[in-house]
Amino acid sequence: MQPTPEQSPHHAYPDHWEADVVLRDGGTARIRPITTDDAERLVSFYEQVSDESKYYRFFAPYPRLSAKDVHRFTHHDYVDRVGLAVTIGGEFIATVRYDRIDATGRPASAPADEAEVAFLVQDAHQGRGVASALLEHIAAVARERGIRRFAAEVLPANNKMIKVFRDAGYTQQRSFEDGAVHLTLDLEPTAESLAVQRAREQRAEARSVQRLIAPGSVAVVGTGRNPGGVGRTVLRNLLAAGFTGRTYAVNSAFAADQATIDGVPAHRSIGEIGEPVDLAVVAVPADRVPEAVTDCGEHGVQGLVVLSAGYAEWGAEGRERQRELVRQARSYGMRIIGPNAFGLINNSDAVRLNASLAPESPAPGRIGLFTQSGAIGIALLSGLYRRGAGLSTFISAGNRADISGNDFLQYWYEDPDTDVALLYLESLGNPRKFTRLARRTAAVKPVVVVKGARHSGSTPPGHAVPVSRIPDATVSALMRQAGVIRVDTVTEMVDAGLLLADQPLPEGPRVAIVGNSESLGLLTYDACLAEGLRPRPPRDLTTAATPQDFRDALAEALADRNCDAVVVTAIPWVGENGEAESGDGEVLAAALRTAAATGPAKPVAVVHVEIGGLAEALAAATSTAAVPRVVRASAPAAPDASAAPADRAAPPTAPGDQLTQQRSGTGPGDTPAVPTLGRIPAYPAAERAVRALAEAVKYAQWRRQAAVPGKVPEFLDDTIDEAGAAARIDALLGPDPDPRGRPLSHDEACELLGGYGITVRPTLPAPDPDAAVAAAARLGYPVALKTTAPHLRHRADLGGVRLDVANETALRRAYGELTDLLGKPTELQPVVQSMAPRGVDTVVRATIDPAAGAVLSFGLAGAPSELLGDTAHRLVPATDRDAAELIRSIRAAPVLFGWRGSAPVDTAALEELLLRVSRLVDDHPEVVSVALEPVVVATQGLTVLGASVRLAPPPARTDLGPRRLPNY
C-alpha cells in the first residue's frame, strides 16, 4: 500500500516495515505502516473496540474518533510520528503509534531520542500476542529512526498492557505519577529481550504447525466425482487411516442434491458446510486455487495443504502466482504447506491423520520426517515401512513457500511423541535460523539431515532461497557445530534414524563385536576403525552358535564396563548334519532383544546375512514408548532459556537426561519392571551399521560438550577498543558508502586490527634495491623480501618470497633474482619484512555470507591444504570451545601438536587470535572480510605476517530483528 504525496512529503513509504507475523495461537497477521488511505479502516476498527479498552487508551470515555483524530492517526512523517497497524483480511485488529518528544514531553524532532508510545488492540483479538508482536516491530522502527527510549502512561487497572511492557525483556523503569503508571523502556536489545522474542517465536510457530498437524476437521477441496484423481485419493487415505475428526468433501461441480461421497458429507463450497473447518487440503488446478483460498479464508479455515502444481517450479509466472498465493492465505491468517506438496501424516492415536498421497500410512513410532520432495518422501516412507520403523509425523512440503523445515523443528522441539527428527532438504530458506533452531533441538533430540542440491546453481525449481557463497563443505561443518547429524544419502539417514530412535546414546567410542562369523566380524572391525571408533577384537561364537549363545554373549558384552556399544554379526549357522541353515530368525531376535532389554542401556546393532525373518522380528517392538538415552550430562538448556518465566519456552525433558535409567525402565529406588522389548536395528552390511553407530557416538559427544557451553574469555575486553574501531570504520566508509564496499590499505587494516589486539608485523615498501636496503636497515636483519602483487601474494611456490636474507649483499642479490624471474618492481610491488620466529604457517579468515552469516575459518597455509580443502569453520560469535575445536578439527592438526617429534606450537595463542577475529566481525558487521595470512605459530607466541580487510555497509540481519515470516 503506497501513500499519497500528502502522506509523507519528505520520507518515502517504508515498505520494508511491512511484515507477516505468527501470533500466539498460530494464526498469522500482517503488520504495516498506517497511511492516509486507512481512514475508513481506522474508524471501523475503533467502533469494534469496547468502551473499557477505549478508556484504557485515552484515560477517559471516548466513544468515537473525531475527524481531527482520524486525520492525526493516519498522517505520519515516518520519522517523528509513526503508526503501525495489524491487519487480518485487510481490516485493522490493532494499532500502535509513537510520537517523538523532548525532555519536557512536548513534540520534538531529532536529535531528541525519546518517544511516547500507545497501543490499542481489538477486544476479540486480545490474548493472541498481538501487542507483544507490535512492540517488537515499533521498537525496531524507532531504533532505525534514532529513538532510544519509549515512554508510556498506563492506567493501573490495565494489567494486560503493563504485562506486555514488563515481559518484553527491555531495561525499564517504572513510577506512579498522577494516578497512572509511567513506564520508560530502553529500546537497546538485551539478552533477555532476545530470549523472550525467540521463546515467543517458538511457541507461535509450533502452534501454527500444530493447527495443521492435529486438526479437528478436514475438508478436501477438489474431491473428484469419480474414483481416482488427487482429491479423491486424499479422501480415501483420510478414511483408511481412521481420522478421528470430521471429514468433508468439497467440489463446486457436485450436484445440488448430492449429500455424500464415499460416506463423507459432500458440499460445493466451504461456506456450505456450516461448521468450523480447521484444515483444507486443496487439490484443484492452479488457476482455481485463489477462489478456493478465498472460500477457505472467509469461513475461518486455519490452514491449507496445497497439493496443486503449476507454481514456482514452472518459471517466473508460476513464481509470482506462488507469491500471490502466500500473500492471499496470510491475509486471512492461514499458513500453507506447499504448493506442489505431497501432504502430511500424523500417527498420533488421538488424530490418525493421513492427508497425503501416500497409499499406506507408516506404523506409529517416534520419528518425525520432513521432506521437500514428494518422490524422496515416497522412497523414505517405503524404506521405513520395509524396515518396520514407525513415524510420529510426516510432512512433504513441496515448494515450501510458507511452512518449512524450520517450523517443524519448532514443533518437534517440544513434541513428546517425537524422539528423532529426520529432514531431507534441498534448500535452506533461512540458514541462520535453521542453525539456531537445529542447535536448540539437537540439545534434546537428534536431528538428522540430508542436503540435496548441494552444489551451487542446482537449487530445485520452485525454491526461492538467499544467495550463498559458502561451499557445501562449510555448510556441513556449520551443521556439525549445531549438533546436526549430516549424512550424504537418504539410506544413511534411515540407517541413523533407526538406531537413534530405538537405541540409547553411547557413552563413548568403544565397540564390542560378537557373532558367528569371523570374516563378518573382521569386516565390522575394519569399518569401526575407518569411522574413528575403538573396536575390541571380534568375539567369534563359531557357526555352531545357538540363539542362547548369542544371548549370553550379548549380555556379557553389555555388562562390560569397557564397552560402550555392541555390534552383533550373524550369518546362517551350521546344523547337526553340517548343512547351513537359515535358522529361525524370530528365535534369534527374541534372544537378542531379551539380552538387550535386561542389560545396561547401551546401543545394539545387528549385521545379518540372509537370516530369514530376523530383521522383521527385531523391528517388531512391543512398545512405542520413548527409548531411554544415556548421556553423562544433562541436556543443555535451550539458548532462549534466559527469558523471563512468563515468556520462557521450557526445554522438553529429553530421554537422555535420566542418567541412571536402564533398559528395564527402572530408576533409582524403583521396583524393577518387566523388561521392555524394544526394536533393535538390523543392517545388511557392516559398513552401514557402523556408520550409523559412529554418527550416534559423535552426536552423544556433542551433547555432552554442549551441556557446558563455551564462553568468550573476559580478558579480551581489556584489550579491545570497540568504540574506537566503530569510529574508525565509520570514517573509512564515509557518509555515503559504496554498497560494494572497499578493501582497506595495509596501514588501514593494521590500524583497525590493532584496536582488537591483533598486531601485524610491519612491512616496508621496496620499489628499488636501495629502498629495500634502507628498509632492512630500519627493520634489522635477517629479513624477508616478498612480492605483494595479487597474482603472486602467498605463492611461495612461484618464487615470490626470499627468506632469511642476512645482509645487504644477499638482499641486493635476492632483489635482482626476484625481478629477473618474475617481472619489474612496479608489477611485483616488493616489500621487506623482518623475519618471524620459526613455526607452523596457518591461515585465519572470517567472511560474511549473505545467507549463513559470519563464518570463522582456520587451516594450515600452503597449496596442500587448499588442494585438499582441509579447512575448518565455525559460526561467529565463536566461544573458547569453538576456537579450541576449530584448530583440532582439521586433518593436518597433528602438525600443531608435535607430529613426528617436532615441538608443539602455542595453540593457546592461536585460539586467542581466533577469538579476537571473531569479536571483530561480530561487533562490527561492516567488516565483511578478514584474512590473516600467513600466521606463523611458534612454540611461544605467534606472528601475523599479512592481513587484508574489506569493509562494506552491513547486510541485513533478519535473525536479530523483530519476528517476521520470510517472503520468498
Question: SSE layout and pairings?
Answer:
Elements: E1 19-22, E2 28-33, H1 39-47, H2 51-58, H3 67-74, E3 81-88, E4 91-101, E5 114-121, H4 130-144, E6 149-154, H5 159-166, E7 171-177, E8 180-186, H6 191-213, E9 217-221, H7 230-241, E10 246-250, E11 260-261, E12 264-267, H8 270-273, E13 279-282, H9 289-298, E14 303-306, H10 316-331, E15 335-337, E16 343-346, E17 353-356, E18 363-371, H11 374-386, E19 390-396, H12 405-413, E20 420-425, H13 431-442, E21 447-451, H14 472-481, E22 485-487, H15 490-502, E23 510-515, H16 518-530, E24 534-535, E25 539-540, H17 547-559, E26 565-570, E27 573-574, E28 580-581, H18 585-598, E29 604-608, H19 614-619, E30 682-683, H20 686-706, H21 722-733, E31 742-743, H22 746-754, E32 763-765, H23 769-779, E33 783-787, E34 801-805, H24 808-822, H25 825-828, E35 830-834, E36 840-849, E37 853-860, H26 863-868, E38 871-875, H27 880-888, H28 907-923, E39 927-937, E40 942-944, E41 947-951
Parallel strand pairs: 5-6, 9-10, 9-13, 10-12, 13-14, 14-15, 18-19, 18-20, 20-21, 21-22, 23-24, 23-25, 23-26, 26-29, 29-30
Antiparallel strand pairs: 1-2, 2-3, 3-4, 4-5, 6-8, 7-8, 11-12, 16-17, 16-19, 27-28, 31-41, 32-35, 33-34, 33-35, 36-37, 36-39, 37-38, 39-40, 39-41
Q: What portion of residues belong to β-strands?
A: 15-25%
Low confidence ranges: 1-9, 630-650, 653-676
- Overall pLDDT: 87
The helical percent reads 25-40%
The assigned structural class equals alpha/beta
By DSSP, the count of extended strands is 41
Radius of gyration: 32 Å
What is the number of helical segments per DSSP (H or I, 4+ residues)?
28
How far apart are the first and last residues' alpha carbons, in Å? 19 Å
Query: How would a crystallographer describe the biggest sheet?
Result: 8 strands, mixed
Please list the strands of the largest sheet in the order they lie side by side.
1-2-3-4-5-6-8-7
Shape: flat
